[in-house]
């Protein structure tokens, strides 16, 4: 299957992408991984992307599209893939359609993870990270530490990242609504969108998505 996963920040895309890709035996292709791999391996695309990032500029669509095309042409993606973070706007969606069409392929589904905006703000703004080890993550509501502001694992100080504050989260949501959300209507016109309620336990959301995909086969 060839799937695009969309949803606002805080909807759990990365977590669901990993589970769904595993269940479907297809590679999980995330924009973040593409950038890290290309920059780490110092590919020409990676060097180009880094030149923009070092200046604080957005990486142009054509660079992101080229990275995605290169990854989708690898052998493990021959029979399907799950895209997470790409396409990010309608221009990228149109480019993806063009790439697939040239290869005689098409998307099977676009999974739209839906979470109420207030819940997203609560999820992200409640995160607390350990200063000693960023792998130790707590949540003020859902996974609070035993002692306020202290990591249960190593005793390090817990803090809120600058991009996890409520104001920042709401700005990120505005960007999502403006830039990325329009691709849902773009794909809805192709009858590809499957809306998944992303509230609840991780395995419950995965089960909903898998059921929806099977129903659409």
Automatic annotation (TrEMBL):
Name one molecular function that GO assigns to this entry: AMP kinase activity
Segments for region (NMP): 30-59
Q: Does the keyword Nucleotide-binding apply?
A: yes
- Catalysed reactions, semicolon-separated: AMP + ATP = 2 ADP
> Entry's PROSITE patterns?
ADENYLATE_KINASE
What does the UniProt entry say about where the protein is found? Cytoplasm
Enzyme Commission numbers on file? 2.7.4.3
Q: Which UniProt keywords apply?
A: ATP-binding, Cytoplasm, Kinase, Nucleotide biosynthesis, Nucleotide-binding, Transferase
What pathway annotation does it carry? Purine metabolism; AMP biosynthesis via salvage pathway; AMP from ADP: step 1/1
Q: Where does AMP bind?
A: 31, 36, 57-59, 85-88, 92, 161, 172
Q: Which Pfam families match?
A: ADK (PF00406), ADK_lid (PF05191)
**Span of domain Adenylate kinase active site lid:** 127-163
Q: Which residues bind ATP?
A: 10-15, 127, 137-138, 200
Q: What is known of its domains?
A: Consists of three domains, a large central CORE domain and two small peripheral domains, NMPbind and LID, which undergo movements during catalysis. The LID domain closes over the site of phosphoryl transfer upon ATP binding. Assembling and dissambling the active center during each catalytic cycle provides an effective means to prevent ATP hydrolysis.
PANTHER family membership: NUCLEOTIDE KINASE
Share what the entry says about its subunit structure, partners included. Monomer.
Q: Which family does it belong to?
A: Belongs to the adenylate kinase family.
Function in brief: Catalyzes the reversible transfer of the terminal phosphate group between ATP and AMP. Plays an important role in cellular energy homeostasis and in adenine nucleotide metabolism.
What is the designated name of this protein?
Adenylate kinase
